[in-house]
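All the exercises in this workshop are built on plain-text protein records. Sequence and backbone structure share a record, each on its own labelled line. The question running through the whole workshop is how a given chain folds. The record below serves as our worked example for the rest of this section.
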Amino acid sequence: MRIVILLCLLASSMTIGTAQSDCPLRIGTNLAGPADYGSEWPLVDIMKYARTWTTHNAWWVGGGQNLWDTQVLPYFDLDEHGWPMQVPVEDIPGTEAPQIVLTVWANTSVLPEGVYTLLYEGEGEIVLQWDAQVIAEEPGRMEVQVTPGVANIMALEIHQTDPSNHLRNIRFLMPGTEETHQEQIWCAEWMDKLAPFSALRFMDWGYTNNSPLESWTDRALIDDYVYTDVGMPYELMIRACNDLQKDAWVCIPHQADDDYIQQMAELFRDQLDPGLTLYVEYSNETWNWLFDQTHYLNEEGDQNTPWPERTVPFVQNALDIWSDVFANEMDRLVRVVGVQHSWQDVSNRVVFNMAPGSIDAFAPAAYFHIPGEGHAALKTMGNNVPVEEVLYWARQGMLNEAWPWTISQQTSIADELGIPMLYYEGGQHLTPDPWGTDQNYGPAMVAAQRDSGMYTLYREWLDSLATLGTPADPGLLMHFSYIGVPSQKYGSFGSLECQFCPDDYFPKYEALVDYQEDCAPTTSVSHPLPDNAWIVWPNPAIDGHTFVQWAVDQPGEIILNDALGREVSRTHVSGGLHVTSISMPDQPGIYFLHTQTLEGTILHRERIIMP
């Protein structure tokens, strides 16, 4: 029998568990990595989120290739922060013309419209194109009208620079921030929407996956021209936590040498507010073969030791160095080992091979998803797959796979070792099968992100995870992620889709916020009821039942009639959001179901098949 999960979960049998009050589950969030095509903009200086330099012809060459990126940046002399010392560069082998540099911001539709200020030092020629148009200019300063979404891209080109006083320190400032950008580096909307979260995980900020960082001199620096090369500087991670008073969760690059690991630990020890908790983890998902770190550990580890045990010495060494650095302040530090949510054997073989007392917690993910049978069912439905189908299968994945995996991790490791189970990532994980492909149910997966049913799913999942913690020793879920662009191919992970959309309804974000406000199981949605939220499922009926979603502000009745108009049943329903089971007659045939107010006004009508 199938039950639509867009509805409030009234019966205890409908939920995985019943949460305690006083927040036995804390909520943090992962932050999106710096990317010109993203939708999260922490800094008022958006130059830092521009794409790394590409090169192309200084002018259009008739009959030439005129490549977008001629890939000759190694021929440019860059200063220590990445600014080109001389432009154009001539006589580069294989090129059609002198070469200049440019950078872009894609997906400008997520930026606020207005007059931006571009400040710079040095002498030369800067040209802006497409959604960015210069409207006023003086030495060292430009006023730029940004009109998002026209071309959905804007570009900055350096056409010429004086080698004796090269263009540098370009800052591209959001509207109204020119006078305050040095003291207030954070975008106000970004800060405001982060307020409900208790901790920030910087895995993507640090470009942890596939990180090339080895020595301390390789790391990102505050004055780098952009942060889309090797990630955000650690100093900004520390400042974000200090300014916002959020706990920090940081990831050590997998190739970092011992000096790097020690200096990283010393930096966080010395600069992070000592009143904040610091979670440290070696790399990220070192069991995930999609990432370089897994291959690196497999290939560089002791080949006489089986996998995944051969990854343990790397994790052990990194966390031991941090332990030494924090030897006199261990109450500030939580040493975390990340494990695979659905692969208990791998989790056990890593955690139980760590030296006793060397870790403070372990962390699987906490995602719910569409199970394999759900993907198969959705693929048979053709185009226009209903959102409720996606949500139904997501709940089946939660009940039948995600929750049992979570309980297995709890009983196998947390209970056995007496250490906390945290969640390095979590939330919904609605992605296609195979991942990265277009599927007929892709649009429905994206639409589900804004459906009220996603709010209900989230509340059930949070309430369930909360049963594994206590107010005195709460769990910690680092939701993945904060702000992100929806994608049919790769998943829609952001709790928010847009940083500058204050009036839009984002059910994942609202569920995370509402949970923390009341820390109790949900019995009804707290946001305004959706218009015409009428759903009947399944149709045809299954096992002699169908279910009705009722979502109106007033009480009424659900009436079932046979094909001749004779009343079969009448169910009274109060106002609000409900799911109501309707028993169908034993006689197969066509029936008609309608809802009406107590005054008799008919709201909805639908034909039901009883097979």
Notes: DSSP finds eleven helices and 24 strands in the chain. The first strand starts at residue 25 and ends at 30.
